[in-house]
Amino acid sequence: MGYEFSLDDVAYLRSAAGCAALSALADLPLTPASRLADVARARAVAPDRFAAVLETLLLRRRAAAKVDFADGLFTDDAVQQATPRPVARHRAERFAGRVAHDVTCSIGADLAALPEGSFGSDLDPVRLAMARHNLRGSRAVLRADALRPVSRDVPVVADPARRDATGRRTWRPADFAPPLDALAAAYAGRDLAVKCAPGVDFAVAPWADEVELVSLDGQVREACLWTGGLATPGVSRRASVLRGDGSRWTITDAEPDDCPVTPPAEWLVDPDGAVVRAGLVRHYAARHGLAQLDERIAYLTGPTPPPGVRAFRVVEHGHYTEKALRSVLRAHDVGSLEILVRGLDVDPNALRRRLRLAGGAAATAVLTRIGRTPTYLLAHAERT
């Protein structure tokens, strides 16, 4: 856990003296090697608040990739749980033209993306003080318990903390703060959006009308549980794939999911993690004319890969044994090997060491199971 800020710390950091200290120390390296020198210099500038100043400088650097508060105030947990800008904007689009209430607004990062007139609340007075600083009056915030509604007739947004009382990350919805079921009960009948970690078991939220998995540049960033008028009619599962360049696409379970199971074809496609996590692999295959290698494995195959993805042009494939793979790699003069494993108990790093590759070519080895047969596919990765 990071430094525990107090209200006095926040007041100092917002003051002229605090701003001057932050400015004077903004060029500190803040590396493990420079720690002693950084602390000594910070003590000289802000003797009574040097720890708060150093933590704030460090958190600002970490937060820069996620939020737009250039001179913001943060806690360590808030930065870890903050939503990247493109994902927050994507989620906020469902509230277009509506005022929303963020009932776990924390330091204000997600609240800032919601439509004008939206407001937030939180139980933590320190985070609320930081939110007031970060939002600069653009959104109202108040202290309130998320499980005791203080608003009516507006959609609700929540992002429960996913750490237990000891500060350890938890995947049990009952340990969220507030707990997932209690949150749903408190706002039963209201339009509700709950941000969760993508690894959450959706079976624990039967009250959710739509579950959306969102990825950004290939990394699954969040699951959002939508209810009521915020959910899309006829859709229970959605995957939204965002790119840093602003492009995006989405797929839902309302689309056809008819796809065959075939042997490997010219191309192998590994669907985006949001598609896999949302259980939409067959829908994605049907959309792009692909087939499954195995009904239980997410790899897809076909004559043409979808545009804009990293796909694998298959060179050859066969029954996988370590001896067979080593022979194939030597035959193709492979010395640099990417190893992808799905459905087999193989440690890629340990396998690479045992293979002792010495060739001059680069390739990808995909190790998977087709039916009961462990299978290798030797391929070359290409961006389509």
Would you give an account of this structure?
The strands form two sheets. A nine-stranded mixed beta sheet has the order 3-2-1-4-5-7-6-8-9. A seven-stranded mixed beta sheet has the order 11-12-10-13-16-15-14. Strand 4, helix 9 (180-186) and strand 5 form a beta-alpha-beta unit. It is globular, with a radius of gyration of 25 Å. It has helices spanning 7-14, 16-24, 35-45, 50-63, 76-81, 85-92, 109-113, 125-135, 180-186, 273-277, 281-288, 322-331, 348-355; strands spanning 101-102, 119-122, 140-143, 156-158, 192-196, 210-216, 219-226, 237-242, 248-252, 267-269, 291-292, 300-302, 310-319, 334-342, 361-370, 373-383. Helix content is 29%, strand content 24%. The mean pLDDT is 96. The protein is of the alpha/beta class and 384 residues long. It contains 13 helices and 16 strands.
Number of helices: 13
Structural class: alpha/beta
Regarding quaternary structure, what we see is single chain
Q: Kindly report the average pLDDT value.
A: 96
End-to-end CA span: 42 Å
Helix content: 25-40%
Q: In which order are the strands of the major sheet placed?
A: 3-2-1-4-5-7-6-8-9
Q: Helix-strand pattern, N to C? A: HHHHHHEHEHEEHEEEEEEHHEEEHEHEE
Give start-end ranges of low-pLDDT stretches: none
Strand content: 15-25%
Largest sheet: 9 strands, mixed
General form: globular
| Rg (CA only) | 25 Å
- Quantity of strands, as a count: 16
Keywords: Methyltransferase, Transferase
GO molecular function: methyltransferase activity
Organism: Saccharothrix algeriensis
Protein name: Class I SAM-dependent methyltransferase
